[in-house]
Structures are given as C-alpha cells and as structure tokens.
Amino acid sequence: LGKLEEAAIDGKLTREQFLEAYKGILTANAIEAPVESVQNAVFDLFDRDDNNVVDLMELICGISLLCSGSEDDKIHAVFEVFDENGDGFISMDEMFKFLTSVFKVVLTPNVMAVMNTMGVTVES
Description:
single chain; mainly alpha; two-stranded antiparallel ribbon; 7 helices; 2 strands
C-alpha cells in the first residue's frame, strides 16, 4: 500500500501511475509482471467508479479484498491510512475524506442508475 500511496498525487492514481507502481512492487518482490492486458484488468478491478483514476478508498478496498489478515487487522490498516497526521485520532477533515471516499466507491454509476429509477437523486 505504501508504494502505491507514494505514487499517488492528491490521493489519486492515474492508470499510468498505478501500473508503474504495480510493476515496481512486483519487480521488488521478484515477481514477473503479467502481460499488459492483465495489468489493465488489475487497474480496472480497483477503479470501481470507472473514472480512470484509482483513489485512496478504491485502493484500500481492493487491497483489503486481496490481502490476508483478520478483519481487525484490515480495520487497523484503514484507520492508519486515514489518520494522516498519525495522532491516533480521526479529525473532522480526515473523516470527511474517508466518508467522501466511501461514497465514491459505493455510488458506482450502476448503483446511481438504480437509485434514479427508484426516484432517488444523488448529487455528485
């Protein structure tokens, strides 16, 4: 997660930034990078809202699905990511960023379309 976070600008990774960091992680662990189509499929797996950018929450959600560890371990890892200043607390600003990220992941275009058919309008 650290290598991907380092590659991010303003907490977001373009396809190019993501793939470069992804290949770097694989290389650092002596794993051969898969063919380009597989690399793009990995990016698409993380890019839940199909905007060609992977944000911090999409990254965390994707990694938590792929990584082993208990639910508590994963919750602590997410907490540490959003506790940006490392003070052991989530400030209002950090909570706002967290909730904004959660809604971006949850409110995919498909979910929003279903909500619209039900008469629920969501502003971006």
